[in-house]
Specification:
Layout (H helix, E strand, L loop, with lengths): L2 H15 L1 H25 L5 H21 L3 H22 L1
Helix pairs in contact: 1-2, 1-3, 2-3
Length: 95
């Protein structure tokens, strides 16, 4: 499936359910990812499909949040770069 097709479906979902409900669903999906990470750490199991599935849900939600709130890839990447550089600096200072 192309990026354009995915974005069309995400936009249709937003139009169908509304921004408020989709925002709530995104919060719930983030909570489910937190639970999946916790379960993975507790159980020390090699199986990670449940974790990958929850990560996929959150990635979909992130794309939908971008559409709903007009956030560009550049907006996000600017913060990703700044925060990554800040983390690198912290690690360097700790060494």
């Amino acid at each position: 499936m192309s990026d354009e097709e995915l974005q069309t479906i995400w936009q249709q979902s937003i139009d169908h359910y509304g921004t408020q409900l989709q925002s709530i669903v995104c919060m719930e999906e983030c909570g489910e990812l937190i639970q999946a990470i916790s379960k993975k750490l507790r159980e020390h199991t090699p199986f990670t499909s449940f974790l990958a599935e929850e990560m996929a849900d959150v990635i979909i939600c992130l794309h939908m949040l971008q559409l709903m709130y007009g956030i560009t890839d550049k907006d996000i990447m600017d913060f990703v770069e700044a925060k990554t550089l800040r983390q690198a600096k912290r690690m360097e200072e700790e060494s």
